[in-house]
Specification:
- By secondary structure, the chain is an alpha+beta fold.
- It is built from seven helices and ten strands.
- A five-stranded antiparallel sheet has the order 1-10-9-6-7. Strands 2-3-4-5-8 form a five-stranded antiparallel sheet, with helices on one face.
- Helix 1 packs antiparallel against helix 2.
- The longest helix has 20 residues.
- The chain is globular, with a radius of gyration of 17 Å.
- It starts with a strand and ends with a strand.
């Protein structure tokens, strides 16, 4: 199996700086996106340190593809972000979504927060991750409508994130690669601003999908930092 991919990010029109972070090694593949919570120094540190720490921990692990190693990598990130928060005022935390290729023709997915992983297979776009937000729970159980004020407010209430006082574990799942699969890792600056069908149509031509997705977020208003990684199997 061979892999190709691209990655990018835009600041948007709401924040003066970019609090997203990402890493891509398409050859493995290894892809990570993180989204800092808010616009504090803790937000900037959490996103950057989580992406760097996660990739460094896996590269040093004896069995980097095991669920135990992936959970341990996240546990170390909790420690790092909470240690920073003790000496700096303001919120310190971030989301993290990762795709970690293995030697068996598949990949492990690590999810904590509300960044996302999508897969396009045979023209069908599927969301492979769940958002760890009060909005996700409320929408699943019919507590409020998708576009209601209550749902919009609940999207900012993360139930799991890096730096959480309880150090929650991430979701860890395995996916098998097939030729022609297209994977999209993105922060909520992409997922919240672009509708499902627009994301699907963009991924049908994966070679330029990152640039077109990010440009579309600016056209939609640029309400948040937006980061996208696209990986195609071949």
């Amino acid at each position: 199996m061979e892999f190709s991919g691209g990655a990018g990010t835009v600041v948007g029109n709401h924040y003066a700086a970019n609090f997203d972070a990402f890493y891509l090694d398409a050859g493995l593949p290894l892809a990570v996106v993180a989204d800092g919570m808010g616009d504090s120094a803790g937000s900037a540190f959490a996103g950057r340190a989580s992406v760097e720490g996660f990739t460094e921990t896996l590269r040093a692990a004896a069995a980097p593809h095991s669920p135990a190693a992936l959970r341990q990598a996240v546990a170390l990130l909790h420690d790092s972000v909470r240690e920073f928060a003790r000496d700096h005022p303001g919120l310190a935390g971030c989301t993290l979504t990762a795709l970690v290729g293995d030697a068996a023709g598949g990949a492990w997915v690590v999810q904590i927060g509300d960044s996302r992983l999508y897969r396009l297979r045979h023209d069908v776009l599927e969301l492979l991750t769940s958002d760890h937000t009060a909005a996700w729970v409320g929408l699943l159980h019919g507590w409020f409508a998708y576009e209601s004020a209550a749902a919009r407010a609940a999207r900012y209430r993360l139930t799991r994130y890096i730096g959480h006082p309880d150090a929650p574990e991430p979701d860890v799942l395995h996916v098998s690669f097939r030729h022609g699969d297209v994977y999209l890792l993105c922060t909520d600056g992409v997922a919240d601003q672009l509708p499902y069908e627009q994301i699907r149509e963009t991924l049908l031509t994966p070679s330029s999908a990152v640039d077109r997705l990010l440009a579309a977020t600016l056209t939609a208003g640029g309400a948040d930092n937006a980061t996208a990684i696209v990986i195609r199997t071949g």
